[in-house]
Amino acid sequence: xxxxxxxxxxxxxxxxxxxxxxxxxxxxxxxxxxxxxxxxxxxxxxxxxxxxxxxxxxxxxxxxxxxxxxxxxxxxxxxxxxxxxxxxxxxxxxxxxxxxxxxxxxxxxxxxxxxxxxxxxxxxxxxxxxxxxxxxxxxxxxxxxxxxxxxxxxxxxxxxxxxxxxxxxxxxxxxxxxxxxxxxxxxxxxxxxxxxxxxxxxxxxxxxxxxxxxxxxxxxxxxxxxxxxxxxxxxxxxxxxxxxxxxxxxxxxxxxxxxxxxxxxxxxxxxxxxxxxxxxxxxxxxxxxxxxxxxxxxxxxxxxxxxxxxxxxxxxxxxxxxxxxxxxxxxxxxxxxxxxxxxxxxxxxxxxxxxxxxxxxxxxxxxxxxxxxxxxxxxxxxxxxxxxxxxxxxxxxxxxxxxxxxxxxxxxxxxxxxxxxxxxxxxxxxxxxxxxxxxxxxxxxxxxxxxxxxxxxxxxxxxx
Length: 464
Hints:
By secondary structure, the chain is mainly alpha-helical. The protein folds into three domains: 248 residues, no CATH class; 82 residues, no CATH class; 123 residues. 62% of the residues lie in helices and 4% in strands. The strands form three sheets. The protein has a two-stranded antiparallel sheet. Strands 3-4 form a two-stranded antiparallel ribbon. Helix 1 runs antiparallel to helix 7 and helix 15 packs parallel to helix 17.
């Protein structure tokens, strides 16, 4: 009996293509090459590993790959794609800058892979249609004329259905590609929520999600070659899992909300004002290290506004700010962040006061060879850099991060040098802080220049 193996495999590959399309193609090429060289036998592996499940292993047919897929130019392009997606997927800055373009690339690559997989077994699909459909329907499709009862066409009915090959391949590929676009959108929403929780990626939440997602994509790709129906089941589990993760983050944010005593609208517990009626929150709460409300009440509203800005929240209603820009209106109450010199000065001065302590603690941690480097870097990033990096535009931030990584490699390499190594981590902290502080100041200065007064880098207002 002939099965729709290629269609099952195409559907099973959907989640992998929505996350890591080039990596999935590379896995297909590696396994497909071993199969074509007779170093792997999909049917034998299926019988040896899952012989207890005839239903899952009865659909084995491998993956038919064209000869040009193993040629140098195509392999080179695939390797470039793999490098690109693994470097961009683990960077919050790259995700914000290339988010929509990444979805387009994944969708386009997904369509190409779907089309090739279905088209590679089109003869079998047409044969199955000719055997399954009633003879009069086959005759009508073959001649293009609807007839009541016509005898089957010659000895090869599928030959008359050859004109359906391209429409079937295009329509099926388009349907599954729409699914890729939808799934990649769910995934992009999750990445956006993670980026809001960890703006600079200093906690490694996005990298952790990326590594897990990439590993799962490779796993499902390998599974679908040998167990297409099992891969289809895993694909469904993957989509459900992504949807549940997104729902969890959304519900988590919603559950934190409280009702305004004046209008009854929903607002964040750390808000100073209700975003709907702009009435003061009678009992605002301190904001935590990932933006969550803490049980302690706010005692200094001015300091609390700065704390909200540090956590990329509106200084008025505590709503998360979605853009990486110094000056932006709040999506809930339209309050503009860094609208004047006073806000810029207050924000920078608070960070300036934290700098000496951060240099001391990161320096002490850096005294421990090798082991102390990671906690020292994480500490100064969370203490200072994350607050500034949240307001550096993605394009500028991506270039700056690569330059600072080169500097970091050089300074970390000097850590083991006696007499000099003790200053390596504090120097790295100071360089990162100075660069990001100047970037934020520069962006703020350009936005408020029309007001006639600028904030100098040292925090003192000067006339323009």
